[in-house]
Amino acid sequence: RLTQSESSGDSNAEITIKDGRRFVGSLQFGAARLADYKSATGKRFTQDEFKADEGLQDEVAQWHIADLDEAIDALGDTAKGYDRDGLRSVAHLGGKGGMRKWVMSGGQYNPADELGTSLQDYYDKFSSRT
After folding, report:
1. pLDDT tens for residues 43-60?
2. pLDDT classification of 130: cutoffs 50, 70, 90
3. CA distance 23 to 16
4. CA–CA separation, 89 vs 81, rounded Å?
5. Cα 120 to the chain's mean position, in Å?
């Protein structure tokens, strides 16, 4: 569902936001998240190489979800009562730190992206409980 929302399943999708950052691929990864993956794995590639390689996109997506799950698990009991798919989507949009702040604040920390989508919007959209 997240892939469909981010790119309609198009591995060649790309957007450049006002501040110049590019987000590419089926899950719309930016350079910062790709740098996290490269740091964790030692792999080297450009954002354009990533965009052109569906296999690499799948590999990074699997790592991304596992990494988000680790961040969710690290919240322990604080994350109880929240839906895992919803928390994954919040972390995808707002980063692991943003997801943590959102949970710790009971949803009071709720920034929106350039398109006006807030962390709560993503939680509500992707939670398995909705």
Report:
1. 999 999 999 999 999 999
2. low
3. 6
4. 16
5. 14
